[in-house]
# Entry
Amino acid sequence: MTDPQPRPQLTRSRRVIGVVGEVLITLGVLVLLFVVWQLWWTDVLAGRAQAEARGDLQREWTIGSADQQLPPGVAPAYGKAFGLMYVPGLRDRAWGVPIIEGTEHDLLSDGVGHHVGTALPGEPGNFAVAGHRTTYGAPFADIDTLAPGDQVIVETAKGWYVYELRRDRIINYWEGWVLDPVPGEPRDTGPTRELITIYACHPKFSMAQRYVWFGRLVDEYRKSAGTPPAIDRYGGA
Amino acid sequence: MYAWLWQHLPGPTAVRGLLAALLAAIAVVVLFTWGFPWVESHLEYDDTQVPQSQQPEGAAR
# Structure
């Protein structure tokens, strides 16, 4: 063993530069970690949360009795999942994704969010649903690849509701009219038919605009009738 | 900064290495669990929803 070499004396300015360098490197690593968290870990967490919510709902529906079902016009509990959404055109990410009552940021990590006060699945009016375009499972990541005629299938305790998308539109983030009972008509226009609006942020990783699809109900099935053919066609629920 | 930390870790090099890795892992867990969600709530760049009630009358169609 030899004595350790005496440490060379660094000048004060060189030491300061060294610390500044370390701080900058640390900040760079923190930013990279944040990106990893945002793009990867939120997907992992959302995947778990959505699987759990889906399992809870399906169990509830299996053992559920008729009196557990909500009478028409009664809103589901805020923050709770009340349905599942299947979008054949988005099967990678939006197949059996829980539909949560409410559209707050914290809720959208568990699924897609139903705008409180808009119509419920199968009801006259506009069933308006928001979903993440990126991060947190991003159920509507590829919403721009849908085409007119594509279906959005919704399962609730009561039944299956098959909506068909008709037209898309890119709007500014503040254009709340897309949630109206009949989007495009004056707000006080009463609900005339069963419509759906689904939307997500646009472009990806931006909040400036929203990518919106409008559609209408084309079919509905009671739970006792089994799964609708559209679901079976794409490999089941 | 990191040199100071390294000098204050106890034990031989292998133990110091393990301790340093442990500290880094704890930092990542704390950031992933509390730090980054907090940062994100202040960035609010993926607040997806369009406004429901404060919509101006006759908003652009």
The longest helix of chain A spans residues 12-63. The CA atoms of residues 88 and 234 of chain A lie 7 Å apart. The interface with chain B takes residues 19, 22-23, 26, 30, 33-34, 37-38, 41, 103-105, 108, 113, 115-117, 130-136, 171-179, 184, 187, 199-201, 207, 210 of chain A (CB under 8 Å). The mean pLDDT of chain A is 88.
